[in-house]
Amino acid sequence: MPRIVPVTLLVASIGLLGGCAQIADLVGAKPQATRDAESGEVTGSGEINVFTLSVGDCMSDTTDAEEVTDVNVVPCDQPHDYEVYYDFSIPDGEWDQEAVYAAAEEGCYNEFPTFVGLSYEESLLDFSYYAPTQQSWDEGNDRIVSCFIGDPSTQTTGSLAGVAR
Fold first, then answer.
1. Where are the domains of the chain?
2. Which residues are CB-contacts of 92 (< 8 A; sequence separation ≥ 6)?
3. Of 106, 107, 42, whose CA–CA distance to 73 is shortest?
4. Residue of 26, 65, 60, 63 whose CA lies nearest to 46
5. Is 56 exposed, middle or buried (0-12, 13-18, 19+ CB in 10 A)?
6. Got the DSSP string for 17-64?
7. What is the DSSP-derived secondary structure letter of residue 109?
8. Lower CB count within 10 Å: N or C terminus of the chain?
9. Phi and psi (nearest 5°) for 21?
10. 16 or 46: which carries more pLDDT confidence?
11. Cα dist. 109→13, 49, 151, 159 in Å?
12. What is the pLDDT of residues 78-135, one digit of tens each?
């Protein structure tokens, strides 16, 4: 079941792929990310299912596709486009796309200054989110919104927590 990315908020990025990754893409095999067993931190770059994203995960080579099932993650000490800074559940109820987007927007916006140290309006950073689709809502009981933050002008290295920019 895919999750949705509001295209109007997502800044498309171009990631550099190594020769092996390009060959793997041609034959359909993509490397899977690895996590530290104790901390859960991403230790090896690769793809993960969007439903397994965690706060603190760093993503690169994001897509501007409307529906997403897999994302590319990298260790945060490597250049990346976005970092997951907050996730939360939307209350259960009937599917309503407008209400889901409004709740996602509000939740991510409200948590932005807590994470960055500045209000969204004062910051140079931008945010977007992955939100449930009608299919994931109806069939998978998906209510999770994953908020992610990035610098629209460049990739970053390390966490953006408390950067106040």
1. 3-150
2. 143
3. 42
4. 60
5. middle
6. --HHHHHHHHHT--PBPEE-TTT--EEE-EEEEGGG--TT-EE-S---
7. H
8. C
9. -65, -40
10. 46
11. 21, 24, 15, 18
12. 999 999 999 999 999 999 999 999 999 999 999 999 999 999 999 999 999 999 999 9
Q: Which residues contact 154 (CB under 8 A, 6 or more apart)?
A: none
Hey, what are 82's tokens? Answer: 């976005």
Q: Give the helix/strand (H/E) hosting 149.
A: strand 144-150
Specify the residue for token string 């390390």.
158
Token pair for 57? 């995960």
SS3 sequence of 12-28:
CCCCCCCHHHHHHHHHC
